[in-house]
Structure formats: structure tokens, C-alpha cells
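Weekly modeling sync, notes
Attendees: S.R. (lead), two postdocs, one rotation student

Agenda item 3: backlog of single-chain predictions. S.R. asked that every request posted to the team notebook include the full sequence so nobody has to chase files. The rotation student volunteered to paste the first one in as an example of the format we agreed on. Action items at the bottom.

Example entry:
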Amino acid sequence: MRRMLFLLPLLAAIPSFAVSVGEPYDQVIAEKGQPIGTMDSGTTRVATFSDVTIKFRNDVLVSIRTSDRALAVPATSPVPSHRGSPAGSYTGEAVWESDLETAVSQAKARKCNILVLYTGSDWCPWCRKMDAEVYSQPEFAQYSHEKLVLLKLDFLRHTPQSDQAKAQNAEMAKRYDVRAYPTVVVIDANGKALGRIVGYHEGGSSGFISMLRAYR
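Predicted structure, as returned to the notebook:
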């Protein structure tokens, strides 16, 4: 009886997501509400909620991944951290390249993907909001330092810009069919688009990183 009583609090702590594999997208949204962010790539859609990240294919749920904060189980002894010591953490700012060739060269050397940010830093309010809430945050700097090469394409309107930068920006916008700002396109070192995030998304750097993890 004591064992059963001990298990009850643990069972109560396990979140119930009320959705399952095979459910259509519309039904999941009806049950969980609107996600804090989505990413689309072909027939695949990744929707991020506060407690779970859900992947759809052809608008049918195919996988569910709980967030790191979804379940907190009491422990009788300290749980070892897998994040490394503070001494080994990256404490600098996110490093952005502005030249495509440089970004590609780094991505090939590091064997990682490239996050291409299409922004308008001197005129776009939503771009500035994303910068303040995501790109300037230490959590994003740490993640990008470990996982990505960052390429910023700034479509300036009120600040002088070189003809070379303007030409590169226009070509990259055409290549990946970017028509709104801000837009993030994740590509591999060969230039293949893996997915995109369009517009402003709530959730800060942690929510944004959750969406990026679908395109490792």
C-alpha cells in the first residue's frame, strides 16, 4: 500500500498531452490551442508548444517530443548535470557572418548547418524584437556557437550599404524565395534548404531553439 501511495504523486506529475500519433493537424490544434511557433519544410511541419514539440507529415501527427521542462520528478539525491561546467560554457555574443562564402567555408569545416537570417535592422520593428528577445540572448549565443554558423543578410533602407552586399542579399532572397522579414532559412553546407521560420515568434530564445532543433 505504501508503494502505491508513493507512486500516486509521481503519476500526477507526468503531463498528459491529450494527443497521439495519427491525429490530424486541425484536431491537435483544437485540443492544444495555437502553437508558440511553427516550421514548415515541404510536407513536414513542426509545431512547438509550451510543453511539447510535435511533428506532422502531410498534416498528420507522426512524432511527439516533450520539452525539457515538461516533467519534474522529485529526486532523493542531486541529479548530475549534462550541460558541462560553467568554465566550459561560451560566454560571448552570437557571431554573425555577412558573406555567404565565408559562412559556407566555416560550415564545411565545422560540419554543421547555416542559419541565414533575412532582416531589416534599420526599419523592421519585428526584426528588432526578434533580435532583442532571441539573437542577443546568451542562450542563443551558446547554442549557435556549438551547432550553427550564423549568416545575417541585412536589407537596409536608411543606412549606406555596399553594392556587393545589396547584390548578395537580392540573390539570396531570390534563391530561397524570401518575401517577408524577418525570415530564417536553415541550410546545409551545400546550400540545401532544410526549413524556415517566418516572422516574429513568442517564446524567447528557448522557444526559438526548440524549433531549430528539428533541423540538426
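Discussion: group reviewed the output briefly. The chain has a mean pLDDT of 81.
Action items: rotation student to repeat for the remaining queue; S.R. to check formatting next week.
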